[in-house]
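Q: What does the assembly look like in three dimensions?
Context provided by user:
Components: two
Sequences:
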Amino acid sequence: MKKTVDKKNKEIALVGNPNTGKTTIFNALTGLRHSTANYPGVTVEKKTGSMRLPGGEDISVLDLPGAYSLLPRSLDEEVVHDVLLGIRGDTPPPDLVLVVLDAGNLERNLYLATQVLETGIPVILVLNMWDMARQKGVEVDLQKLEKRTGVPCVTTVGMEREGIAKLQQAIALTLADPAEGSGRFSVEPFLPGLLKTELDKIVVLIEGRLKNRPQAAFGEALRILSDRSFRSPFFGDMKTGDLLRVEALSVRASLKQNGIDWTSVEPECRYAAVDHLCEEVIRRMPQKTVPFSEKLDRILTHRVWGLVAFVGVMGIIFQSIFSWAKIPMDLLSRIIEKLGDFAQALLPAGPLESLVVDGIIAGVGNVVVFLPQIFLLFFFIALFEDTGYMARAVFVLDKLMKKVGLNGKAFLPLLSSFACTVPGILATRTIEDRNDRLATILVAPLMSCSARLPVYTLLIAAFIPAVPVFHVFHLQGLTLLGLYLLSIGTGLGVASLFRKTFLKGNRMPFVFELPPYRIPHLKTVFGTMWDRAKEFITRAGSIIFLLSILLWFCVSYPKSPSAEARFVAERQQATATLSGEALQARLGEIEHSKKDLQIRSSYAGSLGKIIEPAIRPLGFNWEIGIGIVASFAARELLISTLAIVHHVQTEGEGMTAGLVAALQKDRSPETGKLSYTPLVALSLMVFYVLACQCFSTFAIVKRETGSWGWMFFMIFYMTALAWSASFIVFQGGRLLGFE
Amino acid sequence: MPEIKRTLDQLKAGESGVVLGYEGEEDLHYRLKELGLVKGTSVLVKRLAPLGDPMEIILRGYSLSIRKQDAAKILVRKNEETL
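A: Here is the predicted structure of the complete assembly.
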């Protein structure tokens, strides 16, 4: 590391609107040499890589998040703004910026490009998706564009790597001679004369802060003028912040007096400048045939067929997560089980064996088992994003989601949460508006994830009679359906409540682009899928793994030496007095009493006892309490915990049947009544639907909201909700005469 | 002929118009302006979503989905002869 300090690599950054293929250009330039992290303090992805120039020099490449404007409205845009202006301590401004433009949509894309040109950083304009633009009948006079903007312009087709070599040469040239990339373009001639003189009052206040790039002060002053919410970081400046605010208000007042609308002066003048430029450089050929994209849209956004297609597509995703993923998932869990057996045979019995088998291997297993679902889910998401269908799905569904205060982009994260909350919450990153996104994150854990399913299945099998209802339906099936409806209903209800109270209002109007459809590029699709899955494995996986070990410790310790000694004595006695099958049976019994005593005297057991008074009113005994504690590593652990405390053979196919029988028979030692009744089971299932018993979810909420506060709020509201609902079910049921 | 001012959400699928300005002053409008919906811009309502909202509009050569509630803030002059 020390060597690189004195000879720092030059750095270039990619900037562009969303949907310009910026990431494909980044990948084409850097190959596989890239890594992702977060910008310190914010949940914005920082993607960096490196490339070698034709001359042999290595430079680093930074892929900045997508942005529509340098007046930041989302965290993503804030990062772009701060990096380009050189006011982010952790990321110095780049030596060169590649502004990636959708060549078929230059007008809007040039809005941001002209803002970047005004910062004074050397720029290359990359006109990407050049092939699609030609298909659309858009022709661009490149020489004129270069002449008017003063910077090199390169056309590319990122996916085909077309134009990348030319781009690399342009980068090398411009880095060698930065004057090549300094633009001539300014919006200034299009501003009203009065504004130019008024703006100087703001420029002098911020110039000092922009030591490296005094040219950038003009554009920033224009944004400060229009920034109704005073979001520019310059307003937070200790010395000049207040002065700046006063000055901005006075400039606004003076413009208003002269009949200039300060709220639209920047966009209006900038678009006037862009239009002027486009008139010279763009020619649109009239199109003879209806484009393919339009034909497809006539079906996919049709009043009837659009809905049918949507339901069909979501059906395929759902089917794949729950049914296709099941085969590899079962296979994986069997492999992990075998691995456990293997380790058990290899290691001497004792704490080390227990740590490896029940802690490490089981912990890794909890992560790995979800991978097939996660890969499939991310594959479909990447596929729909790449083809352009995703925007149509949002378009079709927005009205329904709006009814509960969310937007169309919340649908996919919530659907993903039925598989696992963690990727669901990761998928909320596409929601730009802060309040929309927070509300979606906070209700995602209410969607009944697949880890809850084994719990429902067991309890339904044990306590819900298999009787037909109205001859067609089945009471067991209806119960399961009811649980899912409870999860969806509560989730949407809670979202609506949050959006009407403390997450009221929006920072942004809900608008999004409907890009033309295109044939998916499999390399991009798999690349995106892999990047996201890798994030799940490294970030969420490591947390799940560590917590699994912590939980193993809580379930296995403290050990009681006297009890251990007693079991050793019992085993010796059994071996001495019995033989054959009787011996095996006795040894099995002893093993189970040992496990039972162990879990009861462990930290988890004590915790189960401690929370017993709190869960009594819900109909739960302390054995269930232990199960609830164990569920925090993985909810399905409720089952194995109940199996251990009820002395059921925990291995093999017979476990569920054995546990069902044991639960149906178990009686409370104090009252002699049955401990588990259908009412208790119902109360327990409702509790599992609504409670947030998942450490990984806590961790991901903390990370994605960037705040402990929201995490604790989520835990609190979900626990309160689960407790109240179970209380109503159990106590209400008793009042109605059920046991 | 007197011009009737209307808002963008009142245009039907296939109708087009020119942006005249905004109703009220809201921070939210700024993003719409940055996306190109400024005074003098031509817009065409391409279609409505299957459930009637949002609407797909075409401006400056690209397609944008916008909710009717936001479109209701945009004043337009409707073009009489629709294409």
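Follow-up: The mean pLDDT of chain A is 86.
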